[in-house]
Prior knowledge:
Helix content: 25-40%
Distance between the termini: 34 Å
Structural class: alpha/beta
CATH topology: Rossmann fold
CATH architecture: 3-Layer(aba) Sandwich
CATH class: Alpha Beta
Bound molecules: ligand PMT
Number of domains: 1
Oligomer: single chain
Radius of gyration: 18 Å
Amino acid sequence: MTHFDKAQVTQDLTGQHWVITAGPTMEAIDPVRFISNHSSGKMGYALATAAIARGATVTLISGPVQITAPAGAKIIAVKSADEMLAACQQSMITQADVFIGAAAVADFKMKAACDQKMKKQSDTDEITLTLVKNPDIIATLAQQKRAKTLVGFAAETQNVIEYAKSKLERKGLDIIIANDVSRADIGFNQDDNQVTVITKDKTWSPDKTTKNALAGQLVEFINEYALQTSIS
Ligand code: PMT
């Protein structure tokens, strides 16, 4: 049996709405160039598949990726962080049960993207682009209480646990999943992952495994957390 063999997996998330972001955002510099990152969408898509297998209704808000959409997900394709935020808010007009921010959102965008392709200037070897901060999607959703349980990822290359804990607090999240993206064997665009799951009073480090298998474990953890906080 695989984790996602629907006939044999408990349908305990039936009636729940999970909203998951995945993939990179793409911030236009001009009509042919953009700022982005190496996210493949695999982690977010695996989480969507795992939640659907347990009966959840899943809205998957995805940046541009090259992988196949999970069967049964409502997919909303976006490019920029602004579009991703708007799609999240629209999907959570009614409060969602769980929000998971697995997307690698670009922290900055062009102050003003150029309407026309930028031309090389012959008199200079340098170019200066003025960038401004993108909205913090998950922090905005936390402030607006758009989901009962909010789960973020923290992609870090150093001080992984410390920085993840500070994001948990600063962004107002329930759970943060620390991902060491300095490692070549896990994280961005790999089939495997290894993470540390952190809540206000718990830290859990499952073994390195495939993103598909890890997604099943993470969905289980998130659901247990949600059940416990709803009765306490
Ligand atoms: O897509 P894959 O190739 O499978 O790779 C998986 C992954 C490495 C992309 C994924 O596991 C991961 O770590 N995702 C989070 C990447 C990221 O943007 O991390 P961050 O530490 O910069 O952001 C922290 C959290 O805030 C994340 O939940 C992010 O979605 C969210 N965020 C960040 C910036 C922003 N402007 N708005 C946000 O909502």
